[in-house]
Design goal:
445 residues; alpha+beta; ten-stranded antiparallel beta sheet; three-stranded mixed beta sheet; 14 helices
């Protein structure tokens, strides 16, 4: 991306809309201090200047991979857009019948990713409300909107699947392990062509063999899908200090502790970049403690308060505190009395008034990605991204995925992949977390 995205307008476009909005905004001027470009890995604090080749044996930088998949036998009714059909009950029925692994009474569906990110291990859990809430706009799109009894089951499913991944791939030098969710679809109207997937809360469990990442080609550091890392974002560029102060003042943890950028970063890819991160003290054992999952949700709540408060100030000068914030005292004392915070909101608001396309691209509702992953030292890390314009949570860790229809290639990976997924299913059934589903590819449990 050759356009100048260091301007406030460019950064807002990247945090709120997408590459086309960024290009449109690139020419807009800002009187805020310009920051040194940091999209390149060499400008990341603590990363060597000669970042793409650190020694003669291995190259370092974000990776771009290609993953084969079996073409999906999906017929979209004439006159419907794909993103409209994806949110239908009919499509979810297809997902259950072709790729469903397990379902429970809480409507949590474990399924194989048909358009996967990895052929090693890749599955998702979706809160399938397609039959219980027909209005797509009324469906839960983040964990804070899920009933406690459903979330308790979901957390146990998360713990068992993550435990399996860490058990099967114990060496951080051999495998990149991650899990988490994104909430981006909910920020767009259903009619928008930018909505790529199902408008229901779902999360991902992915393993990438490190040897495959090492031999993958280096991704362009300006690839639009890598702008989630914080280096382009409005929060990072103009409100970094108050963003971190708000988290520090609002959140009180017993299990999570702040992680340095060096600890959080995956050396091979150089990511994440510029994101607040926390180490899970106790590692995988801590995931068996409900306190961890409460703290995981506290991070999301803090993020939501920051995001919603900022854009309420963008929308309305000197807007009152939103009535449903989670941390009202810190919102008032840290955010609404911070000059950088309010000054940035003013700049965005004024630009919206003179640029209709720019204003239309803003995501007024929170867009985010929150993940748990294993760092190079084997520690589990939690991070959250305020910028969801990429296509996958993998991009937070510097892995850009391309998917290619290739049934023959996929068939070579399928038996081992399905075997791992069925073992995960067995453990979930054993823990009374659902019943197995039969498809043309595997029997019921």
């Amino acid at each position: 991306m050759s356009e100048n995205t260091n301007s406030l307008a460019g950064k807002v476009a990247l945090v709120t809309g997408g590459i086309h909005a960024a290009r449109h905004a690139a020419s807009a001027q800002s009187d805020l201090p310009e920051r040194a470009p940091s999209a390149k890995l060499s400008a990341v604090q603590g990363f060597p200047v000669n970042s793409l080749v650190m020694d003669e044996m291995e190259q370092y930088g974000p990776r771009e991979i290609t993953t084969p998949f079996r073409p999906i036998p999906l017929t979209v009714p004439e006159g419907m857009k794909h993103n409209e059909f994806f949110n239908s009950t009919e499509n979810l029925n297809d997902l259950v019948q072709n790729n469903g692994l397990l379902v429970n009474q809480e409507n949590l569906l474990l399924y194989r990713k048909a358009l996967g990110h990895s052929t090693e291990f890749d599955c998702s859990i979706i809160y399938n409300t397609s039959k219980t809430i027909l209005n797509p706009l009324g469906r839960p799109v983040r964990r804070t909107q899920v009933a406690e009894h459903v979330k308790r089951i979901w957390d146990r499913m998360n713990q068992i699947i993550i435990d399996y991944m860490l058990e099967q791939y114990p060496d951080p030098d051999e495998a990149l392990v991650l899990a988490g969710e994104a909430s981006l679809d909910a920020t767009w109207p259903l009619s928008s062509p930018g909505v790529p997937s199902i408008r229901m809360l779902h999360n991902h469990f992915i393993v990438f063999p490190k040897h495959e990442l090492r031999r993958a080609r280096l991704a362009d550091a300006d690839n639009r899908n890598l702008t989630d890392g914080g280096q382009h974002s409005l929060f990072q560029a103009y409100m970094r200090d108050v963003y971190r102060e708000f988290f520090a003042r609002a959140l009180n943890f017993r299990i999570l502790k702040p992680a340095s950028e060096a600890d959080a970063r995956i050396e091979l890819t150089g990511y994440p970049q510029g994101l607040p991160s926390w180490e899970i003290e106790g590692g995988a054992e801590a995931l068996k403690n409900i306190q961890f999952w409460k703290e995981y949700d506290e991070i999301l709540k803090g993020f939501l308060d920051f995001y919603r408060t900022f854009f309420s100030q963008v929308s309305t000068h000197n807007a009152p505190i939103l009535p449903d914030v989670y941390f009202p005292e810190q919102v008032e004392s840290v955010l609404l009395f911070n000059n950088d915070f309010m000054k940035t909101a003013k700049k965005v608001r004024e630009h919206c008034m003179v640029d209709a396309k720019y204003a239309s691209a803003i995501r007024w509702q929170p867009a985010f990605k929150q993940i748990i992953y294993r760092n190079d030292a084997g520690k589990l890390i939690v991070t959250i991204s305020q910028n969801s314009i990429g296509n996958a949570i993998t991009e937070l860790l510097g892995v850009v995925g391309n998917r290619t229809p290739d049934e023959g290639d996929y068939a070579g990976y399928e038996p081992a992949l399905v075997g791992r997924l069925l073992e995960v299913r067995r453990r979930l059934v054993e823990a009374d977390l659902g019943e197995g589903l039969a498809t043309a590819h595997w029997p019921g449990a």
